Please model this.
Amino acid sequence: MRNRGFSAAFVLATWACASLSGCQFFTAGEKVSEPNPVEARKAQAQPAPAEAKRPTMPADAVHAGLPGAKAKEAAPTPSGQPAQPATPPETATASHILIRYAGALRTTAEVTRTKDDARKLAELVARKAKVRGADFQKLANEYTEDPSGKGTGGKLGTFPRGRMVPEFDQPVFALKPGDVSGLVETPFGFHIIKREN
Model:
């Protein structure tokens, strides 16, 4: 009785294993996939080719940037002066309202207003956006003609200095968090910008 239970369990285990792609069966005299231990030790003793070596990190690099960690002095440059450590680029998080006019960059044929009409509309929107307690996201959803900003409150996300065209980049980085710009003109049209942080 016990043999029959053992046989059924063995058959079930064998079937389950055979249905998996990773199982292998070996019979007496077949080579198994495991390496010979002597050959494995010899292979480990061989030095790795130079191109396969991975750079190692200095032990003190783990603590860089942690509070209380002592900064390591930079190696001197060819001029003998210590090299300045690389600083991450300044970033800003902002939203904007874009008012386009016919002939502005990437403006579609549906936009037929003149540049003067676009300026007047943008000035009106800028005044509304600068009112204390104004809901900039609501204004952006209502007025922006930036397809990616419509329905998202005009959000541009976070970006580093220099990513946007200079006409946009300079004013946004001049704003303090929470401030709303006046009218900003770029090749795309007129913008009202709110810096989030």
About this structure: The mean pLDDT is 75.
